[in-house]
Amino acid sequence: MTALTLVDLVLRSMRKNLKHYYLYFFALIFGVTLFFIFSTLQHDSSVVEQTDLSAKMASGFQAATVLLFGILLIFVTYANDLFLKRRSREIGLYQLVGLTKGAVSRLLIIENILLGAGAFIVGLGAGLLVSRLFLLLLMKLVGYEGFVNLSFSGAAFLQTAVVFAVLIVITSFRMFWKVRRSQLIDLFNDDKKDEHPKQPKPVLSALLGILGVAMIGFGYWFANSTYMLNAFLLLNMLLVLAFVITGTYLVFRVTIGWLMTLVRKNQNGHIGLAGALSIAPLMHRMKANAKSLTVITTLSAMTLAMAGFAYSMYYSTEQETRVWVPHDFLIDEIGEGKEGTSEERAAKFAADLDEAGIGYVMQPITYLELNASYTGDNLPDLLGWEGNTVTANVFDVRQLKAAGLDIEEPKAGEAVIHDSGIAWLLTDEVFPYEASIAAGQTNEKLRVTSLGKREVASGYAGVHSQLTVSGETYDRIKAAAPAETHQLVAFNLADQKDLAEASAIFRPYRGDMTLDFYTTYKESLSYNGIMIFITGFLGLAFLVSTGSILYFKQMSEAEQEKRSYTTLRQLGFRTGEIMKGIRRKQAFVFGIPLVIGLVHSIFAIKSVSFIFMSTDITLPVTIAMMAYALIYLIFAVLTIGYYRKTVHAAL
């Protein structure tokens, strides 16, 4: 066979399989486009310089590049496996008419290279056209209002070319390996493999089916229990993943098939046309689909949890910043190169604010820095408090209220702890516990009754716990240890619109430990903006990939079932009657992984919701899940549309 004949066969094969290739081709284009955009934003020097986010962007986009490559690798290789299985009979026919395995391998590899090259060229063009839009979105998310000019990046082009060359090499090798190791009879029967797997005995099916649900339930319970938070946190997380993933596989492999068997038995096998087109095909292909549905469900849950968490962080930036930066500005006694006491520097800052015409409330705040030891029946081991001495800053609740903080006022002899750095460990079961405060020559015994909703002084989160006490208790402790008194001065503006201007004025007065609200908020917003940008695009890439995989599988099954549709049409059944059963089948194929993935992600987000101290994240999580479900719905509609065309053309 000449090279010209082989190329002619390649082009003829691609034209013949065009209806199967178009979504795969556009999915590849989408992958190239996303990868090129990520690489462009990562390597463009003007973006890094003008946004002043070089460290965050470099680390974030490098991690995203690796993850995106992993997503594309899984998607492309999985999609190629599906197409090779779909074309097994065609490969067998080529060998029957005299082509050697080497010639067939070359045909498939040339076809794969042409398809990949076309997707690469179109994807680069699309990336160049829309990268500006993604840049504007990124700038909006990080709160940057300046103009950034984006230019073509040679480094991004080279990185994208290398990545997709690797993908083409991997998929081409898999094609070569499949052709080399396949027997002719296997190629003609490949599409029927695993359609009629040996089912476990009824009792064993029931036990395994119940076990799958029980393992998922145990994973949910353990992830949200107090047993999760101990010195073996990492091992506990792996244990939860193992239980949930194994349980999910058993649900798809055994539980659902077992339930379908019960339904069919209860109806004495009379499941009707809709059941014959939905329940029967699903039962026959459950073994083949169980692994892929488990992978898709698990990764869907991880993607949903990641996207929901990132959006929740972005959504709650302002409220959460207020948790650990309660005052607009705070001047303390710490900081090299800062001349004068906190009162003197506060007076200078106040004069600067007066000169700028910015209204404010200034409140001196004193605190006592003392050694403390804690004892309690339910103190978490991870804190390491039992038997150890820690530093505690004791504050007078009267001064804090005068500064404008709305906080709980403890009773005499009691205290409230404020420490957002360890708040996730301070569950309701921990309280109350006893605190012994070393004040001079005496020890003051306090009963710590609850966790405060926010810090009371900026900059100490995770460093020193803050205890608020009543005025009477504070005066008594201060009298016993007057030398441990420290001075802070809090400023809160009358109009929050002046924060940006006041923050610029405050820069020379900022200490090493204290934070001003506006600067911290903008830094957090930029960090969370980059995180949601990355997770959003990774999630979108994963959604398109998994949605396409499900679509490819259903296209192949539609072709395999075409004879059945022809028979049904010849018997007089209308397209609408046949489509009722097909819609039920697609509701399972797309709906069950989506629903289980949503439930998995809800429990995953719930297990880490302790991070959000002052924000209800129900709304952002719901929005993320609705967007995810909408994209899956689009693929389900496309699949049903393809089936309708297949059924309509069957007669």
Features:
alpha+beta, 6-stranded mixed beta barrel, 651 residues, 21 helices, elongated
3D structure, described in words:
There is one protein chain. This protein is α+β, with helices and mostly antiparallel strands. The chain has helices spanning 3-16, 18-43, 45-51, 54-86, 88-96, 101-142, 154-181, 184-189, 202-223, 233-266, 272-284, 286-315, 317-324, 342-355, 397-402, 471-480, 499-506, 517-560, 562-570, 575-607, 618-648, and strands at 329-331, 360-375, 390-396, 414-418, 433-439, 442-451, 465-469, 485-493. The chain has a six-stranded mixed β-barrel with strand order 2-3-7-4-6-5. It is elongated and about 100 Å long. It is found in: Cell membrane.
What is the gist of this entry?
With 651 residues, the chain is an alpha+beta fold. The protein has 21 helices and eight strands.
What is the helix/strand order?
HHHHHHHHHHHHHEHEEHEEEEHEHHHHH
Amount of helix: 55-70%
Taking the alpha carbons of the first and last residues, their distance comes to: 38 Å
Main pleated sheet: 6 strands, mixed, barrel
- Secondary structure category: alpha+beta
Q: What overall geometry do the principal axes of the alpha carbons give? A: elongated
Rg is 32 Å
In the predicted model, the low-confidence regions spanning at least 5 consecutive residues are none
The share of residues in extended strands comes to: 5-15%
The beta-strand count equals 8
Please tally the helical runs, counting DSSP H or I stretches of 4 or more residues.
21
Cross-sheet strand order for the largest sheet: 2-3-7-4-6-5
Mean pLDDT: 79
